[in-house]
Predict the 3D structure of the following.
Amino acid sequence: LRFAEMFGAEVDSFRDMPLERLYPSLKDYEKVARVGGDILRETGRYEDERIMRRLDGDIFWCRVRGHSLTQETPLARAVWSFADLSGHKPYLPLTPREQDVVKALGEGLTSKEIARELNISYRTVEVYRARLQKKFGVPNTNALLSALSGIPQQNIVPSK
């Protein structure tokens, strides 16, 4: 009942429904299935925080935890729990240009390199970076990328 309420439909609406309908895109669904399936085969357990989609199209953050009962074929029989995180972790959509800047930051490019790639000024990149940091309430680029990836900052261990 809580699952159906979280995703915005009656329980019977989910019978035989393809799970990819609950993801923002087929690409997102396939990535989670690939990564999660590998981890489930290895450990029998999986947990993450991800963006999900309600049946009305509303996008929200969701914590997902799973335990496979058949580790060799992890998705054949599993127990899953879902928690709506939108109350304390709202989904903040990015403009197309913000997406471009974030993608380039994630690739490790400097502001000057991003400016050349996007054919905009270095200062404009810095404005986008500052706006993104403010939007996500983070102090620096590392924290921004962490917030965007859904990985809590405290779970990131700096390289030595």
Summary: The two ends are 46 Å apart (CA to CA). Residues 154-160 have pLDDT under 50 and may be disordered. The chain is about 40% helix and 15% strand.
